Hints:
- The chain is an alpha+beta fold.
- Helices cover 17% and strands 37% of the residues.
Amino acid sequence: MYTFDSRVRYSEVGTDGNMTLIALLDYFQDSSTFHSEDLGLGTDYLKSLNQVWMLSAWQICVNRYPHLCERIVIGTAPYGFKGFVGYRNFEMKTQAGEVLAYANSVWSLMDLGKMTPAKPSEQMLAGYVLEEKYPMEYAPRRIDVPAEGRNVEPFAVKAHHLDTNNHVNNGQYVRMAAEYIPKDFPVKQLRVEYKSQAVLGDRICPVVAGDEETGSYIVSLNREDGRPYSIVELR
C-alpha cells in the first residue's frame, strides 16, 4: 500500500477539535494523486493521452476522527481493473496502527476528446500494482433517493468549486451536501454516487431526504431538469 505521513492541521478540524469529514475525504483523494504522480502516471501523463480518471463512487467508513495535531498515516492501493473501470481502497491510521477510517472507490477512465470510456494503457496496468481488496463490508454503488425528499434553494457553481479539470471537484459535492445536515451529526459512513459533471455557472438544485431520527440523510444535487449531478448519503 502506498502511504504518506501527516499531522492534523488546525485548518482541517471543526469546532470540536477533530478532523472534519471533508478534510478526511481530501486526504484520501490527495493520496491517490500522490500515488499516481510518484508512479509517473499523474496529471501530465494523463494530459499527454487526453484522458482523465473520473470518480464514479465513494464509500468512506469512519471509526474515529483524528484530533488536532495527531500524527496520521494515509494509505491507498488499487485492487482491480475491469475494462475502463478502476477500483481503489484507502486507509487512515494513527502511527500506532489504530485504523481511523477506510474506504472504497470506483473510477472511470475517460477520453476527453471523444468523451468516451478508455481502457488503461499498458504503462498504467504495469505501474498500478494490484493488491488484495480491503477487508470491509462493501455497500452498493447505487444510491436510491427517497420520493419524499424536499427541494431547497438552488445555487450556481462558482469558481472555487472547480478543480484542474474545470468541473466541480469530487469533494465539493460532499461540502455542498453537508450544508443540509445538522452540524453535530456524527457521520460514520459516507457514500457518494457521481452521475454527471457540473461546470462554472451551472445551477444546482438540491433535494434533501432523511433526518436524525432515521440516522441518515440523502442529498441529491440535481440539474435544473431534475437529473442528478451527484447523490450523497451521510449515515
